[in-house]
Amino acid sequence: MVTLSTDGSRQSRQENAFTHSHAVPPAKAGGLVCVVDHQQARRLQMERNLRDAGYRVLGFGSGRDFLSMLPCSLPACVILALELPDMTGLEVQLAMKAGDRGEKVVFVAEQGTLVSCVQAMKAGAVDFFAWPVMPELLLQAVEIALARSGSWWRKRSSQSTARARMDSLTRREVEVLRLMIRGRLNRQIAETLGTAEATIKIHRRHIMEKLEVRSLPEVVIIAQTSGMIPQPLSEAMRREDRKVAMSS
């Protein structure tokens, strides 16, 4: 939910709700929540209520203080104030994106505009709230952010495993693999590489062993996950495959 404005009476009720920890509903604990806000009273309110909800919490008074911390190595959410003294929240978000960090961002703003909201969401923010915000809504956004961050880390782990296995292949095995995943038969691969079909069979067996797979579809998945081949094959590669098929 993207929230940009509320009326005065609603704001008063929301602020009162955030001041009292019993107003915060229980939330599933897990991951880390970083609160980046130069307004100490507001930051401490959020930190206290997040801890009461079962989260591990770190607070930062500026964007640079947060960015100086090493990227989290576990699912993490960043509650980021739009207005900061040293750099804007949007600038912090862009720096995180440039650093390929896995934390997911939830914005809070006192004077947020539609333009800043759109910029934040396009850059990957989970949500954008006007302050004060209902604690239930903020906690829901935190849960979504942690889930997305967890997915990011699982994908990163899969990529690391796939790349490590791919790195174990010799240069010739990589050449054979590239032709395998494009559907070439052993005979066609041997002709393309100028070697014997029996040699290709040996390379193929070594590839399967090193990648720890048993089938060609699994080989394709490992190659795609590692980034070795695009998902799906590029049109240029498809055109080349059609030419080979026609000449066979």
TrEMBL record:
Keyword annotations of the record: DNA-binding, Transcription, Transcription regulation
Domain HTH luxR-type: 162-227
InterPro entries given in the database record: CheY-like_superfamily, Sig_transdc_resp-reg_C-effctor, Sig_transdc_resp-reg_receiver, Tscrpt_reg_LuxR_C, WH-like_DNA-bd_sf
Pfam families, sorted: GerE (PF00196), Response_reg (PF00072)
Highest taxon of the lineage: Bacteria
UniProt keyword Chaperone present: no
Biological process, per Gene Ontology: phosphorelay signal transduction system; regulation of DNA-templated transcription
Domain Response regulatory, chain residue ranges per copy: 32-146
Polar residues bias spans: 1-19
Organism field: Phragmitibacter flavus
SMART domains per record: HTH_LUXR, REC
Record has Nucleotidyltransferase as a keyword: no
Record GO terms (molecular function): DNA binding
Source taxonomy: Bacteria, Pseudomonadati, Verrucomicrobiota, Verrucomicrobiia, Verrucomicrobiales
Name of the protein: Response regulator transcription factor
Region Disordered: start-end pairs: 1-24
